[in-house]
Amino acid sequence: MPDQVFKLITQEEKRQKEKIGLIPSENVVSPEISKVLASCLSNKYSEGYANRRYYEGNQIVDQIELLAIERVKKLFGVPYVNVQPYSGSPANLAIYFALLQPGDTIMGLKLSMGGHLTHGHPKVTASGTFYQSVQYGVKADARIDFDEVEALALKHKPKIIVAGNTAYPFLLDFKKFRQIADKVGAWLMADISHVAGLVVAGEHPSPVPYADVIMSTTHKTFRGPRGAMILVTPRGLKRDPDLGKKIDAAIIPGLQGGPHNATTAGIAIAAAEAATPAFKRYAKQIRKNADALAKALQKQGLQLVGDGTETHLMVIDLTQFGIGLGTQVAYAMDAAGIYANRNTVPTEQGSPFYPSGVRIGTPLVTTRGMKEPQMRQIAKWIAQVAKHVTAQQLPKDRKERTVFLKAFRKSADKDPVLLKIKREVKTMTANFPLFAW
Ligand code: DSN
Question: Is 220 one of the catalytic residues?
C-alpha cells in the first residue's frame, strides 16, 4: 500500500491546480527541473567544492556543479559564483560571515516596510543579534528614503549596506545605494531574490555594475528549484581578490555541510531556461500582468501601497477598511480559491501577525499562462472578497482576536459568497496547466 505521503502529495497537487497562487515568492518549476529534483543526485554527499571534496565518488557531481556555476556566471556576467547555499537566509548569513566581524554594523530595509528578516531585523534574528543593525525606511510615497539611508550611513558607518527587499513594489536604485556605500566605504550587497528573473530578462536594473556581492534565491521569478546562489561582481573581486574564496569558506566549513546536489542540477537547468527567448517573454508577461492586476484592483476601489507596482508584486493596503485586516482577508481569499499572504504596510498600525495588508504577485499565474484578462477577473474576485469580509472588524483584545479568527476561518469555508467565487476560480484554473511555458 502506498505511503500516506503520496496521497497527501496528490491532494497538494490538486490544491495547486485548482487554486490561484498569488504569493509573489512562489512559482512552478519546469518538468525538467522537477525530474532532476527527484533524481539519484540527492543520494550523494559532496562536502567541499569541485575537485576538492571530502568524500569520494563525486566525479559526476563535480561536473554538474561546475556547469551550474558556469551558466550562472554567463547569465549575470559575473566572475565568481557559489551555488551551494541551502536557501536565501543561510546565504545572507554566509555573506555577513565572510565580510564582517561579530558586532560590526549592517544596514537594511525595515521588515515592516518591505525588508527581510535577514537584513538585520532586530532582536529575534541572527543578523540583528550578532551584528549592530541599523534599519532604513520608506517615504510617504512608499519609496526608499535615500536621504535617510545616507544620513544613517554617515552616522553609523555600516560595514555592509543591503539593497534588497521582499515586499517592495518598486525598482531598486542600485546606483544610489552604491554612491552612499562609497561615502562610508561600505560593502554593497544586493539581495535580488525576488527579482532575479526580471533582472536576467532586462525587466529590472541589474545590480552587477554597482554591488560587490549579490545574493539570490533561485525559486522566485528565477523559476528554479528552492535554493540560493551568491554572485561576486567584478567590482567586488577588484576590491578584494579573495572575496570569492571567502564566500566559499563561509558556506563550507563556515555554515553548511554537504550541498544539495539535486538542487544544484536544478539551478543549472534553471539558468539554461532563463537564457532563452521564451524566458524573456515570460518575464515581460509577469510585468504586464502585474500592471494589469494593479490597475484592475484600483479600479475595483482597493488601495495599493505606493499606488501601484514596477515589479512582479504589490501590497494591497486594507487600512481603508480597518486596522489589522490582512489576516482575515488572506484567510477569506484562500477560502475563495485565491491564496496570498498577509503583509505589513509601511504605515502599519497593526502588527506583523495581524497586519493591514495582503501581498500578491504574478510570477506563478504567469507561468500558468494567464494574461491580462485573467488578471482583471482575479482583481474583481479579490475586491469582492475584501469588501465582503472586512465588514466584520478584528477585535482589539488579543485573546478575543484569536477566538474570532479561528471561528472566522471555519465559517469562511462555508460562506456562500466565497464558495461561489471558489467554484468560478476552479472553472478558470481548469484551463491553465501548472506549467504552460
Ligand atoms: N519567504 C520569502 C518571501 O516570501 O518573500 C522571503 O524569505
Answer: yes
CA-to-CA distance for 398 and 379, rounded, in angstroms? 31
From 32, 45, 143, 148, active-site residue:
45
Place of cell 518538468: 31
Strand intervals (E) in 226-373: 228-232, 303-304, 313-317, 338-339, 341-343, 357-361
Q: What is the pLDDT of residue 353?
A: 86
Q: Which residue in the list 53, 110, 166, 191 is annotated as catalytic? A: 191
Beta bridge partner(s), residue 134: 107
Q: Residue 58 corresponds to which cell in the numbers above? A: 563525486
Distance, CA of 167 to CA of 376 (rounded, Å): 22
Percent of the chain having pLDDT more than 90? 97
Question: Ligand 1: does its nearest atom lie under 6 Å from the Cβ of 362?
Answer: no
Coil, strand, or helix at residue 53? strand
Instruction: Give pLDDT tens digits for 383-409.
Output: 999 999 998 888 888 899 999 999 999
- 235 as an active site residue: the answer is no
- Cβ neighbors of 308 (< 8 A, separation 6 or more) are 169, 291, 294, 295, 298, 314
Report the pLDDT averaged over residues 298-312.
Answer: 98
Catalytic, 45? Answer: yes
Asked whether 25 lines ligand 1 (CB < 6 A), one says yes
Q: Which atom of ligand 1 is nearest to the CA of 359?
A: 4
Res 1 pLDDT > 80: no
* pTM (whole model) above 0.85: yes
Q: Is 165 in the pocket of ligand 1 (CB under 6 A)?
A: no
- The CA distance from 427 to 240, in Å, is 56
Give the tens place of pLDDT for each residue, 56-111. 999 999 999 999 999 999 999 999 999 999 999 999 999 999 999 999 999 999 99
Mutation to probe ligand 1, out of 23, 25, 27 (largest number of atoms < 8 A from CB): 25
> What domains appear along the chain, each with residue ranges and CATH number?
31-274 (3.40.640.10), 277-429 (3.90.1150.10)
Find the 330 Cα to ligand 1 centroid distance in Å. Answer: 16
Determine the average pLDDT of the residues in 192-205: 98
Contact 244 CB / ligand 1 (< 6 Å)? no
Rounded to the nearest angstrom, the distance between the alpha carbon of 364 and the centre of ligand 1 is: 14
Atom of ligand 1 nearest to the CA of 166: 5
Contacts of 424 (CB under 8 A, 6+ apart): 381
